[in-house]
Batch of 2 targets.
Target 1
Amino acid sequence: MEGKITGIAGPTVTLAMPGLKMYDRVLAGAARLFGEVIRLGPEGAVAQVYESTRGMGVGEPAISLGKPLTVRLGPGLLGAIYDGLQRPLPEVAAATGPFILPGSQWPALAEERVWAFVPLKQPGDKVAVGEPYGAIEEDGTRHFLFADQAGTVAAMASGSITLAQPLAELVGGGTLTAAQEWPIRIPRPWRRKFAPTTPLITGQRVIDFLFPLARGGTAMLPGGFGTGKTVLEQAIAKFAEVDIVVYVGCGERGNEMADMLEEFATLTDPWTGRTLMRRTIMVANTSNMPVAAREASIYTAVTMAEYYRDMGCHVLLLADSISRWAEALREISSALEEMPGEEGYPTYLASRLASFFARAGMVETMSGKIGSLSMILSVSPPGGDLTEPTTQACLRAAGAFLMLDTGLAHRRHFPAINWFQSYSLYDQEMTAYFGKEVDPAWAGLKRQTHTLLQREEKLREVAEIVGAEGLQDADHLVMHTAARLRQEFLRQNTFDSDAFSTPKLTLEKAARLLDQHTAAEARLARGDFLTDILREMA
Amino acid sequence: MRLAEHVYSTVSAIRSQLLLVEKVAEVRMGEIVRVRRPDGREIEGEVLLVSGETVLVQLFGESRGLDISATAVIFTDSVKQAPLAETVLHRMFDGSFRPIDGLPLFVPEAWAPITGHPINPSSRARPQEFIETGFATIDGLNTLVKGQKLPIFSCAGLPAREMVAAILKNARVIEAKGESGGGFALVFVALGLTYHEYAFYLDAIRAMRSDYAAFVNLADDPVVERLMAPRFGLTVAEYLAFEKGRDVLVVITDMTNYCDALREVATAREELPGRRGYPGYMYSELASLYERAGRIKGRPGSITMLPVVTMPEDDITHPIPDLTGYITEGQIVLSRELHQRGIFPPVDVLPSLSRLMQQGIGPGRTRADHRAIANLLYRHYARGRDLRNLEVIVGRDGMSEADRGHLDFAKAFEEEFVQQTGGRRTVGQTLDAGLALLRRFGFDSP
């Protein structure tokens, strides 16, 4: 279908092209820029264009691809670096140089790469939609290939294959190939969803011990600038106990992405020993890349994450930061002259976010496997003000709230997670799990830690009135232990070997500190001097 | 593609610096137009919005003297481009790239659109080469590296410009004519400065005697040019860095004036205002400037950016410093309190940060003990600062000996380490001074 451009406003263009459907993909202008139809009306169709419209002319042609915005799913996703529209950035760079020029198109998967294919169905077998008919060994991950149509297998390939060739022929003429397309705004289906039961180990003591996350759960990470959101997200991407990590740099810094890419190519996964990049898919849509592609980037990422979930993998999606996505939504909404809600954000911000969060979960897949998709999204509230719309919309949907504290960050206490304000709704189940799997003392030690930190805070208020000298010895001991908990336990240096801690090590560390405290309390009660006790503890 | 310029005299409305032109065919988004006044003089403008045959044009100058019937609008069929050549160096231009030093424009070797193109994230080289600024608070605690963007958050009346001047004078930005080949160049962009401030910078630039190009938009120059000057500057910087292999330092002052100009223009366009009246897209707008800093794999040259942001009402949560901080790789925050106590540079190290420090320091770059010294200085100074609040309530005598030690350390840190009356320090001297301070108070063990 062909038509032409009749109007341009920021990232949106008006098209004269009868017959377009909502969310159809279009190529607009002489430069053939990617767009998606988001409104139909008497004045024509309005498409949001995923690249800068600068230089685009009225009267230039536009064509419709007759299908919605999709991603290509198949072997070769792992280790790839994409932009928000699933264009492979290293390949684009090799073809067009270090700057991204408008209109660059590139296949998302290497079509000619050879894979070792193991069929799971034989000629004569029946295959249903969503059923695995074969598998490929992809960088240590067993990559199942799902049928996108049902039928009876007539012929089946085996051994070396490429994405371009058909792998199975069905009776009556259909073929199955290794790669398939999936529209990014439609969640991939599952059979059943479960309440989260197993923890998502992040390797960060303060999270795993005090605010545990769950596989299939969601968490938000709000914090002002400089509170270490990106560093924490990257640390979790490195150390989390999951099979696959999908990391979205959504409207963030290019230099930080470069840093991360370099690091991930050299570091190894602490759980399996393979290179980190081999379990990672990166989506990099930095702040200076087009706004509409930023809006699409989180959907591109979550669709790829769901694809691996369907193979029975435990997948973690990290997005940094969801606020930039919300701003992109606002920018597009304002170009459409929609009625604004709070702070100019469209009123559908909360419902869009909620349905995005709902794509997480522990599920039984269409093929009967158990897989999970967890999400950790950072939020960048303007001025650190948590009452702003994006934070509030996330709060209603997220299962854990890990608040980053500017005060802690200024004191270089990282991860700067505030232990009074943060919470996890998975706390009870996960603590029970750790009590069973790691140590029965888990819940007790955790309670003691919370109590000590709270008492420290109270005592500090008292000390501000009566002076530190006015406190009793028992109080001094509490202050001392709480300080050690903060310095040696809650704080974790991402740049050395302390960066990652298993639940067992986390518990041992907490137990050691708290046991010393209990012993010291007992000695104090017997009448020993505090100074002696503290000296011996050091 | 049209081959000739089109002239229209179908202006239907003029509102502040916006022009509505009707019945225009085949216009481009961002296309440059020339608007001819009835008296024959021309001003430039840019296409902002196209709806069918109606076009909204943003003027780059004043609309005074324009009328509806006699004004002609000439569509040029091209977006705004910057002329480029190495002879741009040692020259000064206004916000529209017109020479203001009395010489004719150089002969361009190339042209490039002033909005630039985003650097492919996978083509970026990780910034890791240390730049020595001579200031202990930056070199020691918030290290700057090549390709970084590190703003100075100042307040009205604080000596940000003296600091910038000192950095221009002292920075061993890179060994000039070293391995990078092309040498060093400064691109200076003045936005909405008073003449007094501008003259100060001018002296500093002339005194440093290295290659520079300046884009100057003073307080009484057109507001729309204030939005273009940094783009011209950065397009020139990209050319010098990535085509000519130079290490370019871009100093933009003052970004607050840029944002205010953006608000003024956005309001005139009747756009929906966001926080404090600034447009909702200010984050993307600022990112389109700041993200042009960086290095590219396999190419010599780099763009390092040192923007100055004056925080309105000394408020770091104001949208301008706030959005800046979310984009840049850290910030150097100046403190009114330190300034009032006569400390120069008045850098408050606690809210200051350099996100790329980790890559720039350590053995082979600065010194093996750099990270450890910086961590100790931070920890003990933060403790000392916390205790100051306590001191106000309970008095010094009510505090323990250890706490008094921290109070004294914080004071000594500000007066001896932060304070730099004696001029530049090498990074070795900075670290030695930090270590000596820690030793004096017995804080040198982790």
Target 2
Amino acid sequence: MQFVMSNRRAGKFQDAEKTASRAALAEALTVLPATAHIRSESRPADDLARRSVILEGTPAEMIALDAATSSDVIVEPLILHEREGALSMFKHARVPLAGLMRAAPAGAAPLEFHVRGGGAPLAQATVILFLRRLDGEVMREEARTGADGVAAFPSNLAFQPLAAIVKPYAGFWARWAQVSGQKTTVVCSKLPGNRRLDWWHHASGISSFAPDAGAGIRVGVIDTGLGPHPHLQGTDHGAFILGIHDPDGGADADVHGTHVAGTIAGRPGEVLVHGGIAPGVELHTARVFPPGEGAANIDIADAIDSLSRAGADLINLSLGAPVKSEVVQDAVQDAAERGTLCLCAAANSFEFVHFPAALPETAAVSAAGKLGTAPEDSVSGGQLPDQPELFGLDGFYFARFSCFGPEIDAIAPGVGIIAPVPARHGLAAPYAALDGTSMATPVACGVLARVLAEDASYLAMPRNIFRSDLARHRLREICRTIGLAAIYEGHGMPRS
Amino acid sequence: MADYVIAVKRTMREELPQNWQSQLEDIDGLTLLSPPARERVLVSASPDALRHLDAQLGRYLRIEPLIRHQTSR
């Protein structure tokens, strides 16, 4: 780690005091531990001014130096200040776990989050607490609310609580929360209900709910699995995990796959909740994610094979890695030659497009939001970009997390998308709002399925490379600009 | 030892020796981690075993590390 040593200036009004303070620092630097070394130094010509030194060493060395030096010398971690604090905290998956639960001192009062929504405690909400350790590193800790709506974290004086993301399991918007003492009460807003269509349907040119839209098109979803959920039906191809196929292992190991599939093919029946973009498609699903882990290239390729061989016209891949897999590319090419077009999420790290989206054979989808579609205090409401050129026409904006580049084919709604999540925790048919290019890709996929279902020339084609080429061509044809540069929106937003 | 994915090249399916998977099993320092399959297998291999595999069957196969993909939520 890097830390800073500096002579103290505050309260030193006499030249002699200032000189003594500088001398104390000079003396401290002569007794540095052997393994610590100076990285850089500001040493003003004025002998009375502050001298600061940046050192490389271990936390233990820093603490030992602090204890051994006089009060005229300040020893503290090198603290970096960033402009985009909220953005760096949003990428919480990259923030290391603090391990508070393991290091909890006995008897200390816990830090509690009381999560409520709709006038009642919210059980099964995930609270992600961000903390700053004494050495300056930001870490995270996660807990889940019980039946009383309370999530508790052990207090630890070595960590300073910063802020938290509170994510209800279903029915309510996720939101940021400021930590206010030992007990923080967080009230989450209810998701909009009593409607079949929402802003992402309207943005896609859909003005009325048609249960048969997309009929005749086979859509594959390769993800964390499917359901159970009463509003989703499909052919389950099972799980492909580290080269082993489990035909009975296709249930959702997370919530992601169900949400993605539901965005395309949710069939709420008579229930007045958000419907899929193309509820009439024939849905085929495969799970490639083990619980809590990433999906392996071999399994993605095997799943593409399985769905493509089953006659999938489109495959939705809301997943990615920063490095290219030739094995996956090979399967994508093979699928294209069987008439299957793969639509892939660009990824969420606001950088270059990840793979397989960046492959020339796939269609890459970035994510858009729309002003006024999510509460301002919700996580979804905070996905606005901080650069003016990322705002487009009609209130659309490029989501602050979305990857971009020349590989982008289309942009689709991917902020505050409400879709089914697995029926768990006593909830019969839960829906949740999620953000991501993962959510944008199934919107684009569903719109394309609706269009292809009405295209007699496409439906009459044999399953070969020309069929997948035509699907890609149709995707580009139905895109309309939302006023962003091509590296952000590609050909624009697909509309049916 | 590290994990690798071995996949048959699309253009080499016809030319690939039928006993390619048993040839894999005969390579010292290489262990099959997934059941024998038609086109792809997961193996654990030492650097020497990998060189041996590449020399013996490399023209028919794609060999790459196990790459983990994440959801784009």
